[in-house]
Design a protein that fits this description.
Distance between the termini: 40 Å
Order of helices and strands: EHHEEEEEEH
Radius of gyration: 16 Å
Number of strands: 7
CATH architecture: 2-Layer Sandwich
CATH topology: Alpha-D-Glucose-1,6-Bisphosphate, Chain A, domain 4
Strand content: 35-45%
Helix content: 25-40%
CATH class: Alpha Beta
Oligomer: single chain
Length: 158
């Protein structure tokens, strides 16, 4: 986008490195039992597979969130959509892409999470920043869970 084009939508990308092989890190996101241990602490239902509709519940935030799997290409990429407030999409949903890359001769995995599209408004920015915080927390929690077996979310939000 050039400086003369108006900003119409917001997106963000966060990333982190986990000292585990790519297949193990991918599975920590795709497998509902593992996701429940460090992220969806109220319970994740359904494996992230193409076309699946799953749900995530967070013990520290009210309500169950339905998640639609748009794409799942193990162990490299997962794309999901879910409802959001202040979205720029016609569907009222945001799209989140998880990309997994083996690094350090496969000993570690780079996880990159991109979420789009939020309205380029103050409310849209507030929603985008909130989700950016959430995905950053998810990456940190996943790292600590996979590398040390510790749940960071327990008692963090309540």
């Amino acid at each position: 986008m050039s400086e003369s084009e108006p900003l119409t939508a917001l997106s963000f990308t966060v990333s982190g490195r986990v000292a585990r092989p790519i297949a193990e890190v991918y599975d920590a996101v795709a497998d509902p039992q593992q996701l429940t241990r460090y992220f969806a602490t109220g319970g994740a239902r359904g494996r992230l597979e193409p076309g699946a509709e799953v749900s995530w519940d967070f013990a520290d935030f009210p309500g169950r969130f339905p998640v639609t799997v748009v794409e799942a290409d193990a162990p490299h990429r997962i794309v999901i959509e879910w409802d959001g407030r202040n979205t720029a999409s016609e569907s009222g949903r945001t799209r989140t892409t998880f990309a997994f890359s083996a690094i350090d001769d496969g000993a570690r995995t780079l996880v990159t999470i991109t979420e789009e599209s939020w309205r380029a408004t103050p409310d849209g920015a507030t929603s985008a920043f909130g989700n950016c915080e959430g995905w950053t927390g998810m990456l940190a929690a996943m790292k600590v869970w996979l590398e040390h077996g510790i749940s960071l979310r327990e008692g963090f939000y309540k």
